[in-house]
Amino acid sequence: MRTMTRVARVLAVLVFCWFMGGCGCECGKSSQSAAPGGLLKPRVGFMLPEKYNSPDGMTIGKDGCIYLSVNNVVLPQHPAKILRITPDDKLEEIVTLPPHPETGRASPLGVAFGSDGNLYVADCQAFNTKEPGKSRLLRVNMKDGKAAGCDVVAVGFNMSNGVAAKGDCIYVCETTLNKETPMPSGVYRFTIAELDAKNPAKVTGLNDPRLIVKLSTQSKEHFNGANGLDIDAAGNMYVCNFGDGEVHKVTFDAAGKVATQALLAKGHGMESSDGLHCDSAGNLWVADFLGNAVVRIDSKTGAVAIVVKNGESDGADGSLHSPSECIVRGNKLYVSNINLTYGPHKSSKLYTISVVDLK
């Protein structure tokens, strides 16, 4: 009887396991898609048409939409655009950006909403000319959720890049101030009141009083300094130094002056630091362009965790290919693949935004 009981128990277990396997259940497994090594696996969020061939900067508006700059540097016959991704993941075109009068093109990177409700856009003319001082800051004038025109509000940048907003100020990264080694770069601060389309502000480099943050890039291979930029809910600023793979933390005093500037994170698998955004939990999400990865950084400790990483890819399956910006909305991580030929990357004929399900 005992033998029969044991046999019955074994058979019951086998039947249960067969049933659970046959019904397709994955008991004990997370619903989160994972890649080898515990990394999360990206999927295709958007397979973009040719006319939107180089997506880059992202910010979330009060309407819950992700506003996206489309540089179109890979196929420059298409004009630069601002798009938005609605909360239900529909893609909408907002505005065609005005071309530079000398180069005939706009080349948008970072974007951010100011306290005036308008969208500020870094127009990096370094994609179009080797002549310094041609990059701009644009303002897309928003009214009732639509673009009501676009103005040039600041000029004289060499490589305007990341954009952030805090209070009544707009902050803009200057990726290179000159070609010295180590290479200087930094962050300019403008008051919204001084950004006048009739008389655009003009930056003047290292001695400009608006240059409140200065970085130094040691890399002799990648001449890219201040890049990604964001400000958290507590008012702390985070700035990427692309070439050295660093993230710096900047704090301000009660008068709005820089109180501290310190290295927060470097290395630990992070090969470069391109676009950066803070989430509501105090995490920093950084696009590692050279590493073909996205990392998460604890803004308090500086601990770095690689979240997504893959080898070279054309992006057909949603894999990253030259990621330049990333942002979290809800339980999804959106990643712009700018698709540039630079460093280890070669541009593909696929133009994508990858999405990673975080839940």
Task: Write up this protein.
This protein is mainly beta. The chain is 6% helix and 44% strand. The chain has a single domain, classed as Neuraminidase, CATH 2.120.10. The protein is built from one helix and 25 strands. The chain has a five-stranded mixed β-sheet, with no helix packed on it. Strands 1-25-24-23 form a four-stranded antiparallel β-sheet, with no helix packed on it. Strands 2-3-4-5 form a four-stranded antiparallel β-sheet, with no helix packed on it. The chain is globular. The protein starts with a helix and ends with a strand.
What is the gist of this entry?
By secondary structure, this protein is mainly β.
- The 3D shape can be described as globular
Percentage of residues in DSSP E strands: 35-45%
Let me know the CATH homologous superfamily: TolB, C-terminal domain
Return residue spans where pLDDT drops below 50 for at least 5 consecutive residues: 1-33
For the record, the CATH class is Mainly Beta
Structural class: mainly beta
Work out the radius of gyration: 23 Å
Please tell me the overall pLDDT.
90
Q: Biggest β-sheet, characterized?
A: 5 strands, mixed
**Tally of alpha and pi helices:** 1
Number of strands: 25
Please indicate the count of domains: 1
Helix content, binned percent: under 10%
Sheet with the most strands: spatial strand order: 6-7-8-9-13
What is the CA-CA span between the terminal residues?
Answer: 49 Å
In sequence order, what are the helices and strands, one letter per element?
Answer: HEEEEEEEEEEEEEEEEEEEEEEEEE
CATH architectural designation: 6 Propeller
The CATH topology corresponds to Neuraminidase
